[in-house]
Every structure is written in structure tokens, then in C-alpha cells.
TrEMBL record:
InterPro entries found in the cross-reference section: Lys/N-term_MeTrsfase_sf (IPR051419), Methyltranfer_dom (IPR025714), SAM-dependent_MTases_sf (IPR029063)
Residue spans of biased composition, Basic residues class: 434-444
Residue stretches making up the Methyltransferase domain: 50-166
Spans annotated as Disordered: 425-450
Pfam families: Methyltransf_31 (PF13847), Spermine_synth (PF01564)
Protein name in the entry: eEF1A lysine and N-terminal methyltransferase
Keywords on record: Methyltransferase, Multifunctional enzyme, Transferase
Assigned protein family: Belongs to the methyltransferase superfamily.
NCBIfam families attached to this UniProt entry: MFS_SpdSyn
Length: 689
């Protein structure tokens, strides 16, 4: 322990190194990066005929090993400590005649200009640049200037480093401004327990003549798993890319020693374009008793099903891991922008990387199983990609669900794990006289046009609850007849379409702020306007305010039901539906104004902030005397049914009876009905707030 410095500044002190080497004696000292690990990178940039300068050589064996394997023999080593120089001369005098050791300060070197093809630095820059004080930075500038002076044009400065952010940034900024090409290699780990948890990097700075007036920079990073470098645009991007790899190394070290108390999430990016390719979640199950065969498994989530509760929520993944019976389950989501070569291709691509996330106690050479639903990777076909100023980038895609069911989804890419709208697709119906496809014939490609939209099926549980809330309308024994319904938020149009088609006397007005959504709903989700369905492209706040302002004591309220199913674009607020302005008291008073006395205001509330949610509920109670709530199991959604007067209060038994009666009225002969949709079930969990 006496060898450790009292402060980081001592790393740059000649007195400290004199004491260090005298006390350590003849034992070689390697800061980090053993020769077998560094050799693949060094071999790319050091040629046998190169004249190599090693600055701050210490008593590292790196130069000796390079010499002995024939990588290079014309090697000059310098250091400021005379004891270590004498020691190293004695070690190599008889066996390495072309290698020399000189007592010299790298800040003031005696070599002529352009004397070397390679300058090699293993930990010396890290030892010098211990802080960002003015005096320290001046020494580093002097070091870089001397290295630049003694290197030939086309020569390489190879710096082995742990790549602390301030060290990497300083090197990159200095040499890129001089017109040099800067490339950072991550050194592949040997897999053995290392002295340093952080990965080792090699900066490769190649000297070019500086072109006056040119501001072009060539900055690249070459991760350990690939040879092809990736271009980045700035020093900050390069520092960030290195930091990501450092965080990953720390994570792997941590979870290889102890179980994860919380689920860990990370993205693995495409080697070519840097975009996310896989999203991994590490889920540990303490309740699973470990045995030889149940330590670790990989679960590939089929494409398009990553938004389902079982795969897309922490509790769902926890249940999945427990039911799978493995101590650690690594779930893998596949991204829509990527192409995959089936389960075998994914397994080959991930097999090496996932083992870095293996749990403690995994037996050596243990075969880790890859699991999935049905043994395949699912089907996802992107039908439409676009962008709008209001909704940002979005896609319409068809995905395969359980069994033979296919679904069409609208996804806003700013919140890619949330399905904005969803509809079930009908199987294609053969034309009259057309023969059915024989079972032994080639199956339809997943990219073939699917069938029409199944308008009888509400995919979203919160839509089912919102429709069930219409049971609250009317007198004690009345069922909804002629209805005026206002829906704010179109999406794919499933909710207003269902109300329009199944409440045959309903007149539905829809307000949608984004004209792109009307186009998407019409083209891709079977939505259409008519005598009983009109869409108003405007801000819902303005539309309701205008209606409320037009209302007078002589003009009765207009709507039996007002439904809000509108998302918030502000992801910084803990409420993603609706936007906060829609639940402020002055606006809610306007909603109440346009609602009939026996009407119902139905609100889809998605709020993760407990305080904000309680504030919203308090505001709603202040405006609407009667407030029912229905939680959606497994989701954050809560459907609120608000009525202007307490006279509409109904007990659970009455609600159930009205729901059964309404369902019976909606289930007409010849009209399709989803047998799993039971209105009474949707209202069983309703409670009065």
C-alpha cells in the first residue's frame, strides 16, 4: 500500500516514480492492458520496419514482448526515472540488441524532428493528466507538441488509456484541431478477472499535414466486437460513445457478482448505423431455487408483441421470469427499423454478448437456452411511415398476435413502446368462385395485403370501458336511443367507429388537432365520415370553448356523452393522457356546460405522478358531483365517468343490470360481436370516488 500516491497529482511527480520503482524492485508493473489483449490493435498500426518511441516506459514488459514476437525491433524507450532505466537496460542488453532505454523527459526530448513512425504511450497520459488545472494542461500541451514534433507525417501516436472523459476530450480536441485523424479502439477483454473493471482503450492519432482554413475533423470509434470503425461528428459524441461502453462494463461487472434488485434495461445498437437493434431487460427471480440447468435463459419477444403487458411492463416481465423458472431471464425486444435472419440468426448474433450479462454462479460451459413464444420471432410489416409537425414521426404496422390473429397499430415513435391505436384485421375473404388455398400450397407472405379492419372488435381495454360507461345515460329504466356524442382525439378512429356502428341512432362528432391522423385513420383503419359521423380538425380546447360560449339559457346543452381520449405530447409531465390543460377547472366547467344534465363525461386518464393524479381527481370532483372510476388491469389507464348531478348515482347491481340490457340491445342478429366483450364485466370494478 506504500506504493500508492497520496494524491493523483503525484502521478506526475518524478520523485514519486523514483520511490515507486526503488520499492517495487525488479517486478514488472503493468497499469492495464496485457500484451495479448493489446496485440491485435498494435498489430494494425505498428509495422516491423517502423522506428518506435515508447514514452514513460517504466518497467512494463510491453516493449520486450513486441520485440520478442517480431512485431518491431527498432524501439526506443524513455523515462524520467534513472533507476528503472538502468533496470530495463540490464534486462534487455544481451537479448534485444536493437532496443534501447534512455533517461529522458518526454516534455523536452532530444530527438530530431520527424524521427519516428510510431509513438507508444501506455498509461503515461493518464498519469500526467490527473486534473484540469492550468499547470497540468500546460504540461500536456507540451507533451503533445513534442510527440507531434518527433513523429513523421503519416506516423501514429498510440495511447493506451482508461479514457476518463477529460483525458479523452483533451487528446481528441488537440489532435483533431491539428488536422490529425483520431480513432479510438476498445480493447477486447481476455475474460479473466482484471485489476481494472473499466475497459481499456487505445487512441490512434495519425499525423497529417494541417491544411490552412480547413475545419474538417475525422473522428472514429472502433468497438471491441468489430473491425469497421464508426464515424462520429464531434469530440463530445466520441466521449459519449466511450462513456456508454464504460457504463456497460461497470454494469456487467456488477450484475456478474450480485443479483439485480431492480430490472436493468439497455440497448444494443446496430454496428452499421448505430441505431438501437435490441432492447434487453435483465430480470432476476430470487424465488427460483438455483440448480444446474435453471440459472440463465434468453427470451426473444416476438416482433410487435413488445408492447403487451407481459413483455412491456416490469411486473409482466417479473411474472414471465418466474413462470419460466430461471434465476435470471434476459428478455430481448426487436426493433422495427431492423432486419433479422430468424431465430437462428438472432441466437448467433447475441450468443457472445448475452454471456456478458450472465448471473453469478453460472456453471462453466453451461449451455444457455433461447426461448420464445411458439419458437419464432413473430411477424411485423410496416405499412406506412410518416411525420407530422404535431405528432412527430409515426408508423402504421401490421403484427401477428396469438394464434392466427393479425393487428394493425399506430405507433408514435417518440413513445415507441406505447400503442396509440390498434385494430384487428379480418382474414381475407375469397371472392365468389375463388377456391380456398390448399393447405399444402405456399402460405401467404406476411407482406401481402391483409384483410379489412374488424370494426366489431375493440382492441384497447380502456375503449371497452369507455363504451360501457354509456350505461350511465338516461333515466332509471331507459337505454340510450338517439345520442349526441363528442369524442376528442381520433387516433385510428376505433372508438368513434364502434359508437357509430353499434349505436345506430348516435350522431358522433370527433375533434382531432392533427390532420395527418384523419388521413391515417381513413386510409389505414377503415374510418369514414357520413351523415352521423363528422370530424372537425381543430384544437379540442378551442372547439369546446366555442360550443360553451355559444350556449345560452335558451339553447340546451348539446351532448349526451363527451369522451376525451387525447394524448399529451409533453413527455416531461407525469400525465400522458390528457394534456394538463384539458383537466383545468375553467375548461372542465365548459365541458359541463355542453353536457346534458343526465349526460356523462368519460375521461381516459393516464397519470404516473401520484400527486398530480390526486390534484386532477380533486378538480374533477369540484366540477362534477358524481364521479365513478374504473382501473384498467395491468395498465396505468384509469377511466373516469363524470356526471353533472348526483341524481344519476347507481349501485353496482343496477349498473350490472343496465350493462346487460345495453349489451343485449347492441347484439343484433347478423351483426358481429366480440364474444369476449361483456359490458357488465367492464363495470364490475367501477367504484364511486
Amino acid at each position: 500500500m506504500e506504493l500508492l500516491p497520496r494524491s493523483p497529482a503525484e502521478f506526475g511527480s518524478a520523485r514519486y516514480w523514483d520511490r515507486f520503482f526503488r520499492q517495487r524492485g525488479q517486478r514488472p508493473f503493468e497499469w492495464y492492458g496485457a500484451f495479448p489483449e493489446l496485440c491485435p490493435v498494435l498489430h494494425k498500426y505498428v509495422r516491423p520496419r517502423d522506428k518506435v518511441l515508447v514514452v514513460g516506459c517504466g518497467n512494463s514488459e510491453l516493449s520486450e514482448q513486441m520485440y520478442d514476437v517480431g512485431m518491431c525491433e527498432d524501439i526506443v524507450n524513455i523515462d524520467i526515472n534513472d533507476a528503472v532505466i538502468c533496470q530495463m537496460r540490464e534486462r534487455s542488453a544481451s537479448t534485444r540488441p536493437r532496443m534501447s532505454y534512455l533517461l529522458m523527459d518526454m516534455l523536452h526530448m532530444d530527438f530530431p524532428d520527424a524521427h519516428f513512425q510510431v509513438v507508444l504511450d501506455k498509461g503515461t497520459l493518464d498519469a500526467l493528466l490527473t486534473d484540469e488545472e492550468e499547470a497540468t494542461l500546460a504540461k500536456v500541451d507540451q507533451m503533445f507538441a513534442e510527440i507531434s514534433r518527433v513523429l513523421q507525417v503519416g506516423g501514429r501516436y498510440l495511447c493506451v488509456s482508461l479514457a476518463q472523459a477529460h483525458v479523452l476530450r483533451k487528446a481528441v480536441e488537440y489532435f483533431s484541431q491539428e488536422g490529425w485523424v483520431v480513432r479510438v479502439h476498445q480493447v477486447a477483454s481476455s475474460g479473466d478477472k482484471q485489476q481494472f473493471v473499466l475497459p481499456v482503450f487505445v487512441y490512434v492519432m495519425t499525423k497529417f499535414r494541417k491544411i490552412p482554413g480547413s475545419a474538417a475533423q475525422i473522428l472514429e470509434i472502433c468497438p471491441e466486437e468489430q473491425d469497421k470503425p464508426m464515424r462520429v461528428q464531434s469530440a463530445e459524441q466520441l466521449v459519449a460513445a466511450v462513456k456508454d461502453r464504460q457504463h456497460y462494463a461497470l454494469l456487467c461487472s456488477q450484475i456478474s457478482k450480485t443479483p439485480c434488485r431492480e430490472q436493468v434495461s439497455l440497448d444494443l445498437c446496430d454496428k452499421e448505423n448505430g441505431k438501437p437493434r435490441y432492447t434487453l431487460h435483465v430480470v432476476d427471480s430470487p424465488s427460483v431455487k438455483p440448480s444446474r440447468d435453471n440459472h440463465f435463459a434468453i427470451f426473444i419477444i416476438p416482433q410487435g408483441r413488445e408492447t403487451e403487458w407481459l413483455f412491456g411492463t416490469e411486473e409482466g416481465r417479473r411474472q414471465l421470469a418466474a413462470s419460466a423458472g430461471f434465476g435470471r431471464l434476459l428478455t430481448v425486444s426487436l426493433h422495427r427499423e431492423q432486419h433479422y435472419q430468424g431465430m437462428a440468426g438472432i441466437q448467433a448474433e447475441l450468443s457472445g454478448k448475452v454471456m456478458e450479462l450472465a448471473p453469478p454462479g453460472l456453471p462453466a460451459r453451461q449451455q444457455v437456452p433461447f426461448l420464445s413464444v411458439g419458437g419464432d420471432i413473430g411477424v411485423r410489416a410496416v405499412r406506412h411511415c410518416d411525420s407530422s409537425p404535431l405528432s412527430g414521426d409515426f408508423v402504421v404496422e401490421d403484427v401477428k398476435g396469438e394464434g392466427t390473429c393479425y393487428f394493425r397499430r399506430l405507433i408514435f415513435l417518440q413513445n415507441r413502446n406505447v400503442v396509440q391505436s390498434e385494430a384487428r384485421l379480418l382474414a381475407p375473404t375469397p371472392l365468389p368462385g375463388q377456391k380456398k388455398r390448399r393447405k399444402d400450397k405456399k402460405k401467404a407472405s406476411p407482406t401481402e395485403p391483409p384483410g379489412a379492419i374488424d370494426k366489431s372488435y375493440l382492441c384497447c381495454e380502456h375503449h371497452k370501458a369507455m363504451v360501457a360507461g354509456l350505461c350511465l345515460l338516461g333515466g332509471p329504466n331507459a337505454l340510450p336511443g338517439e345520442l349526441a356524442v363528442l369524442v376528442v382525439g381520433l387516433g385510428g378512429g376505433s372508438l368513434p367507429l364502434f359508437v357509430h356502428d353499434y349505436f345506430s341512432q348516435a350522431r358522433v362528432a370527433v375533434v382531432e388537432i392533427d390532420p395527418s391522423m384523419l388521413e391515417v385513420a381513413t386510409r389505414w383503419f377503415g374510418f369514414s365520415q357520413g351523415d352521423r359521423m363528422q370530424v372537425h380538425v381543430c384544437d379540442g380546447l378551442d372547439y369546446v370553448a366555442k360550443l360553451a360560449a355559444e350556449g345560452t339559457s335558451q339553447t340546451p346543452a348539446q351532448y349526451d356523452a363527451v369522451m376525451f381520449d387525447v394524448d399529451s405530447k409533453d413527455l416531461t409531465v407525469g400525465m400522458s393522457c390528457p394534456p394538463p390543460a384539458f383537466v383545468e377547472e375553467p375548461f372542465l366547467q365548459k365541458v359541463k356546460t355542453i353536457l346534458k344534465p343526465e349526460g356523462v363525461f368519460v375521461l381516459n386518464l393516464v397519470c404516473r405522478d401520484a400527486r398530480l393524479k390526486e390534484s386532477v381527481l380533486g378538480t374533477l370532483r369540484a366540477v362534477f358531483p358524481l364521479l365513478y372510476a374504473r382501473r384498467i388491469q395491468g395498465e396505468v389507464n384509469e377511466i373516469l365517468f363524470c356526471q353533472p348531478g348526483p341524481a344519476g348515482r347507481r349501485d353496482p347491481a343496477e349498473l350490472g343490470a343496465r350493462a346487460r340490457a345495453l349489451e343485449g340491445a347492441l347484439r343484433q342478429p347478423g351483426r358481429p360481436w366480440d364474444s369476449s366483450y361483456v359490458l357488465a364485466d367492464m363495470l364490475q370494478a367501477v367504484h364511486i370516488l
